[in-house]
Amino acid sequence: MAENENFSKDNNTENILTENTENTASAENTQAEAKADKHLITLHLSHKNGSKTLHLKKGHLIAASVAALLVLGGGAYAGVSYLQTQNRLSNSQQQLAEMEKENRKLTQRTEILENENEEYTQHINEIQMKTEELENKMTELENTKQSLAEEINNMSGSTTSTTTTESTEEAAASNDTASAEADLSTACLSILENGNTSQSGEKTFTTIVTTSYNKATSLSAQLDRMNVMLDLTGASFVDVATNVTETLAQYSNVPMGYPVEDYVMSTEFNPDGDPTISDGRVHKGVDLSTRSQIVPISATAAGTVVEATYHDDYGYYVKIDHGNGFTTLYAHNSENLVEVGDTVKKGDVIAMTGSTGMSTGIHCHYEIQLNGIYQNPKDYE
What we know:
- This protein is of the alpha+beta class.
- The chain has helices spanning 2-38, 58-163, 168-199, 216-251, and strands at residues 39-47, 50-57, 264-267, 286-289, 296-298, 303-311, 315-321, 326-336, 343-344, 349-353, 363-370, 373-375.
- A hairpin with a 2-residue loop joins strand 11 and strand 12 (373-375).
C-alpha cells in the first residue's frame, strides 16, 4: 500500500513537472510570439567576437516612413517654391527690362522735344530779326521815296526857272531838256506811287512774342504765314527799290553795282565795328577780292575825278564826285589811270586792282558816301 502510494505520488510529481514544463514551453512560445509581434524585422549581425541582433519594430518603420514622407514632402515643397521664385524673378526681370526700354524711349522723346524747342526758339528769333530788319528797310524806303520826290520836284522847278532866262534858241533846247526831266519826274513819281500803293495799308505782320511750344502745328503754321508775308513784302520792297534806283541811275549819277567783275566780298560794310560782321573792325566800305588777279576797276556812275593820289592807308586811290551828293572811292590800286579833273562815265576804267597801302592782298576797297554819310554798297547793287 505504501509503495503504491509512493508510486502514485511520484507519478503525480512527474505529471506536475510535465505540466509545468509544458506550461513553461507554452509561456515561452507565447512570449516568443509576443516578441515576434513586437519586432517586425530582425537582423542578425555576426562578427568575430560574437553576434548582434537588431530588431526593427513597427513603430520604427512607421517613424522612418513618416520621416521619409516629411523629407520628400519638404523637398517637393522646396522645389515648387524654388520654381515659383524663379518665375517671379523672371517676370520681375522682364518688367524691369520693359521699364528700362520705356525709360529710354521717354529719354529719347525728351531729347527730341528739347531739340524741337531749340529749333522753334531759333526760328522765332530769326523771324523776329527778319521782321525788324524789314521794318527798318521799309522805313528807309519811305524816307528815300520822300527825298526822291523832293529832289524830283526841285529838278522840275529848277528847269522851269532856267528856261525863263535863256535866249530863244537856248530856250528851245531847254524846253527839250525840261520835257525829258519832266518825263523823268513823272516816271519816278509813278514808281514811287506804285510802290506806295503796294506797301500801303496796315501792316500784315507782327513780332512774335510768346508761343506755346507744345502747339507745334499752330507754331509751324504761324511761321509759314510769317515767311510768306516776309517774302512778299521783301520782294515788293526790292522791286520798288530796284525800279527807283535803276530809273535814277539812268537819268542821274547815282552809283550802281560794283567796280570789278568776278569778285569775292572779303570784308563787308561795318561802320560801327559790329563784332558779328566780318572781322569786327570798323570798315566804311567793302573789300572786293579779285583772287590775286590784277583786273580793271570801273566807275560805278558818271562824275568828275576829285582825288587821284597815294595815301598811307588807302595806297593809290581814286575819288569821284558824282554831282548829286554822291561820291565814290576806289582804293589799294596798283595803278591809277585817271587824273584830277577828268570826267568819266559809268563803266569807264579808272584804275587797276592792287595791294598798296595797308592791304594784305590784291583787292578793291570800295566806298560810297551820300552827303558825307557812308552808305552800304550792297544797297546799290
